[in-house]
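S1.2 Input.
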Amino acid sequence: MHVLVVHNRYASAQPSGENKVVDQEVALLRAAGHRVEVFERRSDDIAARSLLGKAAVPLLVPWNPAVRAELAARLRTERPDVVHVHNVFPLLSPAVLAACADADVPAVATLHNYTQVCPPGTLQRDGRPCTECVGSAAPLPAVRHGCYRNSRLATVPLAVSLSVNRRRWWSGVERFFCISVAQRDVLVRAGMPAERLAVKPNFVPDPGTCRTGAGEHLLYLGRLAEAKGVRLLMAAWDELAADGGVGVPLVIAGAGPLEREVTAWAAGRDDVRYVGLYDPAQCREAVARAVAVVAPSTWLEAFGLVVVEAMAAGVPVVAAGHGAFVELVEDGVTGLLHQPGEPASLASCIRRIAAEPARNREMGQAARRRYEQGFSPAVGLERLVEEYRTAIAGRSVLARGGDTRASRGDGDSR
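S1.3 Output.
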């Protein structure tokens, strides 16, 4: 199969689960003998632009005509079987879908978050779940609240893109890949075409090693941001420390907007180590040495890559009991679920998972079995290729009937 992957890479200075998923899927397909090429832009490149070029970036968010022309030309030349779209913000834009229609190549899209129904893609505002824009053709609440980077001005391009490109997304993509049932349910309620929303969870490469002992630390691994529950974790850990601690330190690995706050909080403490941004090998080692991995997100995670990475290493998880986490973690079997947003509940779960080594070991073994059955590379490859074939077959049926989505108004005059 010949696949062209389309992705706007997030900035390299901070962890990106999406970048990781894209790279892993490309490697998986190539290892299986498929021809895979990549059409991408990099957010890192924005810094090298002139002042005028930087100022023009928001204008490209809803529509980038140069990308449409470049991608369409490449598609006509290379004729891939399918185009797999991931992130298009901020430099690619939904113009990539028009390019696919121009060249009459079927497109599929992985939905890594909720940007189809929420401008910042988090379904969260002020640290709490928010669905004000879900189902709305004009996401004005997001602009009013400044939901992206706490800025009304920065939110406008995202809101405009969501509004003007809604029909293009929903008619120009053969199959949307939702990465959890929870995510699919939200999108169906928002009015997205249910028949094109398939559930295809992310896979995780086998780390090649599993935890062998009881573990040496509790581990938070990920972006240091409010939505990831970092402040919640700090509050819960302070509660545990005031009660004598749990016998092992907390290791925090990552980078993000709360880095200074985390650094100041951890400074001078024996029970906390902030280690900065780990490389992939260091991440695998840290996970394999963990008593448990903590994932206290306050937003409704669409998947939870770090949860599955822990499961792959035979390590149980303490996770927030909402979003996709309730699908990934079987409470009391492969880990523990805490009440979302509740420091006391999080502290209680951390205390329990650290205080019962035998039970912890059983949960770790169950987590590894869950990974092998649902999230291994073999399972991921089978699901991915099956969905590609479904999309290609769907386009072929439409073409034989003389009616493709590309000819139903998607080739506009922009």
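S1.4 Remarks. Residues 2-203+378-407 form a domain with the Rossmann fold fold (CATH 3.40.50.2000).
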